[in-house]
Design a protein that fits this description.
The chain is mainly alpha-helical. The chain is about 65% helix and about 0% strand. The chain has five helices and no strands. The longest helix is centred in the middle third of the chain and has 22 residues.
Amino acid sequence: MLYEMRKDQEAMLAGNPKVPVSDMLFADFMEVWLEVVKPELKLTTYGGYQLNVKSAIAPYFREKGILLRDLTADDFEDFSQRSLNDLMVFAELDTTTFAIVALLCY
């Protein structure tokens, strides 16, 4: 199911000739993904995802300048470690959200 969602999102993003998906920052992809899935989520689920993406995930990956095509499992490991080290609200990143993010880079 998540793989199909990812393919649908990539197809939607590929429709924008100005920004090939492979050249898109992962942070930008996550923000677009958030809007793509919004209509299919309960308000509380969307709110949790939005908080995680906007306050932790996107800022971290934007600062790193990591493109979607270059994303690796090590990048997620670094994100997790930094979040824990900085005492960010990592506990707010529930396992579902983290799994979705991890699967997007598959």
